[in-house]
Amino acid sequence: SGRYWRRVTKLRHINFSSCVLLTDHACSHLAHAVPKLEFLELAGIGPELRDDGLVRLLSTTPYIRRLDLEDATEVTDAVLAALTPAPPDPAPVPRRNAPPPPPEPGHALENLVLAYTNVESDALAALGRGCPRLRVLEADNTRMTGLVLKEFVHTARARGIPDARVVAVDCRSV
What we know:
- This protein is an alpha/beta fold and 174 residues long.
- 26% of the residues lie in helices and 15% in strands.
- Strands 1-2-3-4-5-6 form a six-stranded parallel beta sheet, covered by helices on one side.
- Strand 5, helix 5 and strand 6 form a beta-alpha-beta unit.
- Helix 1 packs parallel to helix 2 and helix 2 packs parallel to helix 3.
- The longest helix is centred in the last third of the chain and has 14 residues.
- The chain starts with 12 loop residues before the first strand and ends in a 5-residue tail after the last strand.
């Protein structure tokens, strides 16, 4: 019938760091089960974690604030696209008694750690522009360029985000 029964939990923090047997299929099973998730740590996962399951999970966790993808070597731009909120409508039409739109994934993202991932510089720049609360961006051995650094600093200053920082380690294009 296409219906899936999941036990919905109130978990806010999950740490799967160094669980090398975790796959994207396992992440797919977590989709819709942890809608209040704020902290997701997947450091040291390795090559078994791919985009599909992680995108499914992140698209159902709109309150995610911290995401650690250190050593998730098979993660690509698709994950960053799932985290990047759509740009706001320039002229929304006010409707009476209309419920507010549901929050989008990435609207609350504050801290992102990427290391040894296959993400491109354009996806990082779009994420920095789209996530209004992003204050910490750590990239280790990624394709980040100096333009992303400049844009992140400029955007953080324009938004007045206190203690914003960007870390680029072994990013050869910087």
